[in-house]
Each structure stands twice: as structure tokens, then as C-alpha cells.
Amino acid sequence: MQNKYIGDKGDFGKYLLLKKLCGDKLHLGVNWCLVPDDFDNQDNNDGKFTSYLHENAESSIYSNVDSELFKKLQELLKSGKRCISFVERFNILPSNTYFFSELISSGTYRYIWHDKSLKQLESCDVIFYDPDNGLEVKSCGKLSSNAVKYVFYDEIRDTFRAGKSIIIYQHTNRGKNVVKQIESRVKELVNCLLIPVKSISVVYSGLGTSRYFMIIKQSKSKHIDNINRAILEIEEDNRFRGILKVVRNITYDEKTNRVTVEF
């Protein structure tokens, strides 16, 4: 996550999803996985999709689904203070949300950063990881300087073993089929956490840039019942269309170790 992304279209979809999944039923913890804005010095469109916050034909799509969220992000954009501290202070997320806002450490200090985040968010039911890119890739080791753009499977495993449900932001690779990317990531999570595929849900958002959210649910009824109910409401409520799209069917064949998803 970088501060420059705050308030764009993708950010709206992210906050909308977190509010819907947790509300006042589940205690949310956010690990921003924060990196400096100038980390990669890339001149791309990330974070630039903010025109929806101006009063125009597009605005009603967003204000109709959550007018409070829309107005707060309008206020953020007008203030010129696009930073996570605004999100934390102005109750953009549920008022009892806890945040871990330290920059991701590189090298061996990464392990200390991870342990500290779990300690700070230990009272939460659900932890949201908001890495710049998403889950780890084979081309980038944990001690690499670019590792700050990813969350690693061992960190997800630690969090799940601590009894937390987990939500993970995942940026899509523009050069590959999105369905195949989702299938691959879900399979890796099933094998890493040794959980049934029904414990994982996926919500896609194509706002601004393409991304999806992987939702890993603890089996305890407080978690799985509330999260599944919220996902069903997203799927059935027409106001969410064009903003969030639920992956309806995820299956896993143990014999072939293959995951299949259908929108």
C-alpha cells in the first residue's frame, strides 16, 4: 500500500468490501503493508482514478451504494491529504477498527515487523493485508528489496493459526487470464493452510485497475456465518454491480490438485 492510492476508485471498492464483511459483527484489523510513495518511481495510472468523486454522471453509482463512504472520500480528496492517517482518524472503516501502520521492514527486520503486527492486531477477528502487489511471487525472495511489495505465505499461515480470518488484496497480472490467476492463488492457499476450498471466497473489482480480494474464513460460526451472509448480500444487491463481483463457484479436485472458479 502507498499513500498516493488513497481515495481512488479501487480504494472505494476496498473500503466498501471491508465495511460489508465486518460491520459491527467482526472486529477488523488492517495491516497496511505500507511502503513509501516513491519506492518504485513508476509513472503509471495507479491512484489516479479519482474523477468519480466529482459531481458527475458516474458519482451516483458510488454514492448510491454507500453515501457516507462517498462523502468522506470526497472530503479527503478536497483536503489534499491522501494518506492512511485520514482513513484511520475519520472512521472510513468501522469505528472499532485497529490499524498497523508501520512501513514494511526489509531484510531480516521483516520478521520483527510481522511479529509486531500480529501482536498489535491480536484482539481482532479479521485481519486485512493490503500489500502493494499481493501474495509473494517466485521471482522475489523474502529478503529481496522488492519483498516489501508482497505478503508471504508463511505470514498468512501464522495469522490463520492465530485464529484470524484473513482478507488479502491481490493485484492482477495484466498479461495473464484473471480466472487462471485466481485459480492458481486459491490452490496455493488451500495447500499452504491445509483448509477446504469452501473456506475461501473471492471478490473481484475492476475499478481503475484490476484486482481481487481473497477471503479466508475461520470455521467458527461467528466468522464464517457473518462473512458468508455478507458475500451473499453483495452478490444479490444490484447496487454493488460494477463495483464488486463475487466469484460464485470455487471447486477443488484433490486427485488432480486443481482449482476451478466460475464468475
Structural class assignment: alpha/beta
List low-pLDDT spans: none
Whole-number tally of structural domains: 1
Order of helices and strands: HEHHHEHEEEHEHEEHEEE
Output the number of helix runs.
Answer: 8
Number of extended strands: 11
The fraction of residues assigned to DSSP E strands is 15-25%
State mean pLDDT (0 to 100 scale). 91
Please tell me about this protein's structure.
With 263 residues, this protein is α/β, with parallel strands linked by helices. It has one domain (3-262). The chain is 35% helix and 17% strand. The strands form 3 sheets. Strands 2-1-3-6-8-7-9 form a 7-stranded mixed beta sheet, with helices on both faces. Strand 7 (200-205) and strand 8 (211-216) form a beta hairpin.
What's the gist of this structure?
This protein is an alpha/beta fold. It has helices at 9-22, 59-65, 67-79, 84-89, 109-120, 153-161, 178-193, 221-236, and strands at residues 28-31, 98-100, 126-129, 134-135, 150-151, 165-171, 200-205, 211-216, 245-246, 249-253, 258-262.
